[in-house]
Design a protein that fits this description.
There is one protein chain. The chain has 393 residues and is of the alpha/beta class. The chain folds into 2 domains: 5-44 and 288-392, Aspartate Aminotransferase, domain 1 (Alpha-Beta Complex); 46-284, Type I PLP-dependent aspartate aminotransferase-like (Major domain) (Aspartate Aminotransferase, domain 2), CATH 3.40.640. The chain is built from 13 helices and 12 strands. The protein has helices at 5-8, 14-27, 46-58, 70-83, 99-110, 125-133, 151-157, 180-192, 254-267, 273-284, 288-310, 336-348, 372-392, and strands at 33-34, 93-96, 116-120, 137-141, 162-168, 196-200, 230-235, 248-251, 323-324, 350-351, 353-354, 364-367. Strands 2-8-7-6-5-3-4 form a 7-stranded mixed sheet, sandwiched between helices. A 3-stranded antiparallel sheet has the order 9-12-11. It has a two-stranded parallel ribbon with strand order 1-10. β5 (162-168), α8 and β6 form a beta-alpha-beta unit. The protein is globular and about 60 Å long. The structure holds glutamic acid.
Length: 393
């Protein structure tokens, strides 16, 4: 069968592919610490499970409006108003099957063939592929020190073909949280050059120490015209540990939301009714599990960062998400970080994602969404591996 160029050119999600490979190894009896996938190892909050079960038992599990139930859209608008320093109404929100679904829908509705979209690196695996799928050209902008946005380089990369910017704070894979000044500067640039900002805020709730999260919408009052060009992507997967529920949303100007809704009405119908009930339950009142999970991530993060520092690895301090992204260039051969990760898996049974997956060679992503014991074990294995590399040179 002849496969379309569009699909042939599309790469498989490398994080999901690697996770599948590692899980198969573990199922086959291999002793592997899986730090590859960014998936919480906690169950979803009890309130989510209870609402999902009640929904199923009610028997009213039917198609819903393509944009999601009015109740969930209202709950999301209230949640956004409370968390983004900007007022939202239900018509600013479309419920989607996940953050990824919201992102692909937004890109398909915003990007014309030949448009440039700026992607500050490192960037989560799906951004560049989804921009290409929409017919656009991802323009990758190298960071400072492996994680910090280079705003001068972002400004210099803008051309008449540039239409938008992909912002992701806290960042996957680096955990870097953009400062308020950085987000403000980017927002001002968007206005100056008539660009949209697609702001992936899926890790917003996972912030550590005294760091604060800033959405570009925080500057909407100060920068007229900004609210009309910002689209927020978020969902239940990370902060609520609801990955398998597959539920998220896009929020932005009503004309874009209506366009995404039209697209999804044709491609995916309506979002999952059971998951929408579960999502609404955790949005109405934040369940205690959410802060408990965040506190547990904070403890794991402290352990991991202390371990990486002790091993002599350099990294930009990750103040959000559940990742660290150290520089492993001193330990790489000509195969780069991909070879480093291959050998690490083969020799000591530790699975990490090479930076190439995030368009940045020479770094590796460690996910600490796993127990303290496994984080400790991962550090022991990484230490052993680095030691053998040092001994070999
Ligand atoms: N977002 C997670 C990750 O980066 C899950 C896998 C994926 O969708 O890429 O590992």
């Amino acid at each position: 069968m002849r496969i379309s160029r569009r699909a042939s050119d599309l790469a498989t999600s490398s994080t999901l592919a690697l996770d599948g490979r590692v899980k198969a190894l573990i199922a086959g009896g291999a002793d592997v610490v899986n730090m590859a996938v960014g998936e919480p190892n906690f169950p979803a909050p009890a309130a989510a499970a209870a609402a999902a079960i009640a929904k199923i038992e009610s028997g009213h599990v039917r198609y819903t409006p393509a944009a999601g139930t009015p109740e969930l859209r209202r709950a999301l608008a209230e949640h956004l108003t409370a968390t983004r320093e900007h007022p939202f109404a239900p018509e600013h929100v479309v419920v989607c099957h996940s953050g990824k679904h919201a992102l692909s829908g937004a890109l398909l509705c915003l990007v014309e063939p030949g448009d440039d979209v700026l992607v500050p690196l490192p960037a989560w695996v799906s951004y560049v592929e989804l921009i290409r799928l929409a017919g656009g050209r991802p323009v990758e902008i190298a960071p400072i020190g492996g994680a910090r946005p280079d705003l001068a380089a972002i400004r210099a990369a803008i051309t008449p073909a540039t239409r938008g910017i992909l912002l992701n704070t806290p960042n996957n894979p680096s955990g870097y949280v953009w400062t308020r000044d950085e987000v403000r500067e980017l927002s001002a640039l968007a206005i100056e050059h008539d660009l949209w900002i697609l702001s992936d805020e899926i890790y917003r709730r996972l912030i550590f120490d005294d760091t604060t999260f800033t959405s570009p919408l925080a500057f909407a009052a100060e920068l007229p015209g900004l609210a009309e060009r910002v689209v927020i992507i978020d969902g239940a997967s990370k902060s609520f540990a609801m990955t398998g529920y597959r539920i998220g949303f896009a929020a932005g100007p009503p004309d874009l939301i209506a366009a995404i809704t039209r697209l999804h009405s044709q491609t995916t119908g309506s979002p999952n009714a059971v998951s929408m009930a579960a999502y609404e339950a955790v949005l109405r009142e934040e369940p205690p599990e959410v802060e408990a999970m965040r506190a547990e991530y904070a403890a794991r993060r402290a352990l991991l960062l202390a371990g990486l520092t002790e091993l002599g690895l350099e990294y930009v301090r990750p103040d959000g998400a559940f990742y660290a992204f150290p520089d492993v260039r001193p330990y790489c051969d000509e195969r780069g970080a991909a070879g480093f990760c291959e050998d690490l898996l083969d020799e000591v049974g530790l699975a990490l994602v090479p930076g190439d997956a995030f368009c940045l060679e020479g770094y590796v992503r460690l996910s600490y969404a796993l127990s303290m014991e496994r984080v400790e074990e991962a550090l022991v294995r990484l230490g052993r591996f680095l030691e053998s590399r040092r001994a070999a040179t």
